[in-house]
Design brief:
By secondary structure, this protein is α/β, with parallel strands linked by helices. It has one domain: TIM Barrel. The chain has helices at residues 4-7, 13-18, 23-30, 67-70, 83-88, 106-119, 131-134, 144-159, 175-181, 187-204, 217-226, 238-260, 283-296, 298-306, 311-317, 328-332, 382-394, 421-439, 482-493, and strands at residues 60-64, 124-128, 163-169, 210-215, 266-271, 276-278, 339-342, 348-352, 359-362, 399-403, 444-450, 469-472, 477-480. The two termini are 46 Å apart.
């Protein structure tokens, strides 16, 4: 052993004493290997995640987009005008007065985008069909050039081993139907949707086997016709709003029946249901969360699944209750093959209460964590309680998480990377809760991250980024974020990583 006194010859003894290190202690330290020597004779063993984090065999990993948010080409190949074309061109309706005129230009770049999906190991892709590309006025003579785009997109997906899931309505109502019938205020729009749905099933059904009729009825009704924040920007009185809800649900039911009339398909809808999460996982609060889920979704998913409005919903509506025609509820509750759940957060927390409903909603704390989107409060447990309670209440046999995502302040670093560590943390924490559900035999069959790429985020414009791929809106170049690598690993391992 070397003489420790030599090691301190250049040190001030006072500083040594102040540091609390004795000569004897230094002698012990000198016995440790130098920094140039390896600390271990053998390489470290890396612990792989165990099977307790696995998803079921055959679980599908995919991403999602919506026509107006990504396609662009709004005046090409006979596409008709939509309410979002009109709305976004009204000053002040969208942040920075941005529009979906170009969006991500996926209409022209879809082959490259499908290639990116394949590279990230996506097994499925959920896209929406622009109604006005197929029927420019919503009704009448179909437009073959519009259908041709979705033919080509479908073929490209299948050629790359990616299963297409098509959504028939993601909020871009043909403007003609808004002008002529006041949109969803009229039953005529519901009938028009049924005709359109049947046409798509007939034309694409030889290759597309999974259809969602509508995306988030609650959102386009409440924000489009209730508070005016989304297209068409109306603020209806209670009676009109109840009828809009009813007609949208009726359109869904007509769509299910029309699609089924053209073959054997997996048909459902994608809804952002309210998810009241039990404040504590005890029996009484869990029961309260189930009661609340049915009641808080009374005008949407509950009437579709139950075939009736709850007594409380009708009592609360009173004279403003929807105008129900004989047979409507049977159509609305047409049996579903699958159910898509768009889940970002709890709608609220809930506790048992001794009131007439049996539950009480708890407001979010003012300090509750959020993403860069003001509305988006974090709550990973929603990805457990959402599908869990849907299954417990309605015994749904096939559930998909059709949207789940996170908006981040994505920035390209000097080395060209986008380290969206917050998005990866979001995905990991939420997927841990989803895996908890599947481990308890909740029949969740797949997960679609929202979104495949940054896009036109409705009234928020282009500043809000949910994508796995970063879009440079000046060049439209796609840049992979670090979350792409995370998604690739998820899809290969089929487990939380």
């Amino acid at each position: 052993m070397s003489d420790p006194s030599k090691k301190i010859s250049n040190f001030n003894r006072r500083k040594f004493i102040q540091a609390g290190i004795s000569v004897a202690g230094l002698s012990a330290l000198s016995a440790l290997p130098s920094q140039a020597e390896p600390l271990h004779d053998e390489p470290l063993k890396v612990q792989e995640p165990d099977n307790s984090r696995m998803f079921p065999k055959g679980f599908l990993w995919g991403t999602a987009t919506a026509s107006y948010q990504v396609e662009g080409a709004v005046n090409e190949d006979g596409r008709g005008k939509t309410i979002w074309d009109t709305f976004s061109h009204q000053p002040g309706k969208v942040k920075n007065n941005e529009t979906g005129d170009v969006a991500c230009d996926m209409y022209h770049r879809y082959k490259d985008d499908v290639k990116l999906m394949k590279e990230m190991n996506a097994q499925t892709f959920r896209f929406s069909i622009a109604w006005s590309r197929i029927f420019p006025d919503g009704v009448g003579k179909p437009n073959p050039k519009g259908l041709d785009y979705y033919d080509r997109l479908t073929d490209e997906l299948l050629a790359n081993g990616i299963t297409p899931f098509a959504t028939l309505y993601h909020w871009d109502l043909p403007q003609h139907l808004q002008d002529k019938y006041k949109g969803w205020l009229s039953r005529e729009t519901a009938y028009a949707f049924g005709e359109y749905a049947g046409y798509i099933a007939r034309k694409l059904g030889d290759r597309v086997k999974h259809f969602f009729t509508m995306n988030e009825i609650r959102t386009f009704v409440e924000l489009g016709y209730g508070n005016g924040q989304f297209a068409p920007g109306l603020k209806l009185e209670a009676k009109g709003l109840h009828n809009v809800r009813h007609h949208a649900a009726l359109a869904h039911g007509l769509g299910v029946q029309a699609i089924r009339s053209h073959g054997k398909f997996q048909v459902g809808l994608a809804e952002n249901l309210d998810i009241p999460v039990p404040i504590i996982d005890t029996r009484e609060h869990i029961l309260a969360s189930q009661i609340a889920m049915r009641e808080e979704n009374a005008g949407y998913l509950s009437v579709i699944m139950d075939g009736k409005y709850t007594d409380h919903y009708l009592q609360k509506a009173g004279a403003n209750a929807p105008d129900i025609v004989a047979g409507d509820l049977n159509i609305i509750s047409s049996p579903l093959d699958l159910l898509g759940l768009n889940i970002y957060m709890p709608s609220s927390y809930v506790e048992a209460a001794s009131n007439t409903l049996g539950y009480q909603l708890i407001p979010f704390a003012s300090s509750h964590p959020r993403s860069t989107s003001e509305w988006h409060r974090m709550g990973p447990e929603s990805l457990y309680w959402g599908p869990k309670n849907v299954y417990e209440i309605w015994k749904t046999k096939s559930i998909y998480i059709t949207e789940n995502g996170y908006s981040s302040a994505d920035e390209i670093t000097a080395n060209g990377k986008i380290y969206d560590t917050d998005r990866i943390s979001f995905m990991r924490s939420y997927l841990t809760q989803l895996q908890r559900a599947t481990a308890e035999q909740v029949p969740v069959k797949g997960y679609f991250y929202w979104s495949m790429m940054d896009n036109f985020e409705w009234a928020s414009g282009y500043g809000t980024r949910f994508g796995l791929y970063y879009i440079d809106y000046k060049t439209l170049k796609r840049h992979p974020k670090e979350s792409v690598e995370y998604f690739k690993t998820l899809a290969v391992k089929n487990q939380v990583v």
